[in-house]
Design a protein that fits this description.
two-stranded antiparallel ribbon; globular; 5-stranded mixed β-sheet; alpha+beta; 2 domains; about 575 residues
Length: about 575
């Protein structure tokens, strides 16, 4: 046989072997693939084929802040939401990850860009689920990992697929979990290279959501305690070197961001964090919430329930560990230490949020609770599955997976059939009106301005301040909001939901404005930094240029109004 024929046969054989390996990988992970497909199907169907009225009804208004800032940066306008004021009111890594998409679609219709960004976030959550599966496989068996991943997808589909930073946060957190469980940083098996990679992953996780800094503090507090209590000098020196290498790697990612904030905005904390955080003063509504669980905010109630489950699941995990015959093994003790650190983070974050965060809290603030609750579930389910016979285990895994697949399919169908609703719908419709009826250089001002600012393609100054800057807070404090509007060229005031809302603004003559039976009203806006009200902005009934049909925002009937200002 000729050499060419031999080479040809060898190439064909290698090709068949590759195809067979791919087939084996596919069949081995068929359940995981089905879970992932069912997770993304409903959202992708909605975002690709759904009417924009339905699309905007399923997303968080704050998501559009990221998308618009990324688009402005891609178009060369700098870090700004409104095209006028520089801002740092965003989670940095999500913004960085959006930049390639924003650059590619910078001249595309804004609705297309919004749909693409939303699909992008869902795909990141799907990838995070796959990483989570392989991470928790190190906590227990494949069956338990599959069940926990299914739970992760169910909760992510319901609570996190709203366009926010939760997607990239899930990817980074689950990569950190996977790396920690596989390579065991700061153990005797850890190399300096592993320590550096761990530090880089931790830095990315913090950039994905800045309150992950609590995880940094908890990890290195545990490491310092371990160093102090070690009796072996060589092990102590090794651990010091590893922790130092990881801190340097983490700091290499974090310091440029913090230095930039300090130089440009005179604070390492983003403006959104400064406005929402009352530290060191305890938020006045914190104690009733912590003691009684009382809240009128549905998202906070959900977060409280997930927190309670996390604590109970951790206690059960600890009990199962203590009863396990494997509890003396180093690998099992390391798994428990990872779960302990995750639980300590959840407790620290929960206390900080309830004690010091005064407003503007969404379910995405608690995303890590969901990841950790699912990891604890994997550990518990694995301990329960170990007690089953091989046949019973196969049956339990199949039945549980089938139930999860059914729930995911039902959820995806409901999402795909979303009907238009909510104030985001009114914001979108008003934005379309502004885009077609107001001059291209028109400047407007609004509190919850994400979707309206992005989809109107007009300059919209943010009035709750989270994507503005300290110049605006100073104007509120000095009661010079009218002068600020004139200086910034604002000609239109927008109210997305005219109703009593003392947290953000005054709404005098609510019933008269709702019925359009008023001559004028004076609206003042609150500074969340100083808890003071601005000088009022006077608007007139005859200067209304847009009024939506009446709709409900929470328990209040309201309208979406745009006024032309008189100056």
């Amino acid at each position: 046989m000729r050499k060419s024929e031999i080479a040809s046969h060898r190439s064909e054989r290698q090709h068949r072997e590759k195809q067979f390996k791919l087939f084996r990988v596919f069949t081995k992970n068929l359940e995981l693939i089905l879970l992932t497909v069912l997770f993304i199907w409903g959202r992708v169907a909605l975002y690709v084929f759904g009417e924009m009225d339905a699309v905007v009804s399923r997303i968080a208004d704050d998501a559009a802040y990221f998308y618009q800032i990324a688009r402005n940066l891609a178009q060369g306008n700098g870090l700004t939401f409104d095209g006028i004021n520089a801002t740092n009111g965003f989670q940095p890594l999500w913004l960085y990850v959006l930049l390639p998409l924003a650059w590619v679609l910078q001249n595309a219709p804004v609705e297309l860009y919004l749909r693409a960004a939303l699909i992008y976030q869902v795909v990141l959550l799907a990838i995070a689920g796959i990483v989570f599966f392989f991470a928790v496989s190190h906590l227990g068996g494949r069956g338990a990992a599959l069940v926990a991943t299914g739970i992760f997808y169910i909760l992510a589909a319901r609570l996190l697929a709203h366009g926010m930073e939760s997607g990239i946060l899930a990817v980074c957190t689950n990569m950190l979990l996977y790396f920690s469980l596989k390579y065991r940083p700061f153990s005797k098996d850890c190399s300096h290279k592993h320590a550096i990679v761990f530090g880089l992953l931790l830095g990315l996780t913090i950039l994905a959501r800045l309150d992950m800094i609590f995880l940094f503090l908890i990890i290195y507090t545990v490491v310092i305690f371990t160093i102090i209590t070690k009796t072996n000098h060589l092990e102590r020196v090794t651990l010091v070197k590893q922790s130092t290498a990881s801190i340097i790697a983490c700091g290499a990612l974090l310091l440029p961001y913090f230095i930039y904030n300090k130089l440009m905005f005179d604070s390492i904390m983003p403006i959104s964090g400064e406005l929402k955080n009352t530290f060191p003063h305890i938020f006045e509504g914190a104690i009733p919430f912590i003691l009684l669980g009382y809240t009128t905010d549905g998202w906070l109630l959900v977060a409280m329930l997930i927190f309670a489950y996390t604590i109970m699941a951790f206690l059960l995990s600890t009990f199962l560990f203590l009863r396990s015959p494997l509890r003396t093994e180093t690998s099992e003790r390391y798994k428990l230490s990872v779960l302990i650190i995750g639980t300590l983070y959840v407790i620290a974050h929960y206390l900080h949020t309830t004690l010091f965060m005064s407003w503007g809290i969404g379910i995405w603030h608690f995303a890590v609770y969901i990841f950790h609750a699912c990891a604890l579930s994997a550990y518990i389910v694995d301990n329960l599955f170990r007690r089953l016979s091989t046949q019973a285990l196969r049956l339990a895994t199949s039945a549980t997976t089938a139930a999860i697949l059914a729930v995911l399919a039902a959820n995806s169908y409901i999402v795909a059939k979303t009907q238009p609703k909510g104030w985001q719908l009114q914001s979108y419709r008003a934005a379309v009106w502004a885009r077609t009826h107001l001059p291209q250089d028109a400047r407007l001002a609004l509190t919850d301005s994400g979707l309206f600012g992005m989809l109107s393609e007009r300059s919209v100054v943010n009035l709750d301040g989270i994507v503005n800057n300290m110049e605006y807070q100073e104007a509120l404090k000095r009661r010079q909001l009218n002068d600020y509007f004139r200086r910034k060229g604002v000609r239109y005031l927008v109210m997305h939901a005219y109703r009593p809302y003392p947290l953000k603004y005054t709404a005098p003559n609510y019933k008269e404005v709702l019925s359009a039976n008023y001559s004028h009203v004076d609206i003042a806006f609150r500074s969340h930094l100083t808890d003071t009200l601005s000088d009022p902005i006077r608007v007139y009934r005859e200067d209304e240029v847009y009024r939506s049909p009446a709709y409900y925002d929470a328990a209040f009937e309201t309208v979406f109004i745009i006024w032309r200002l008189r100056w």
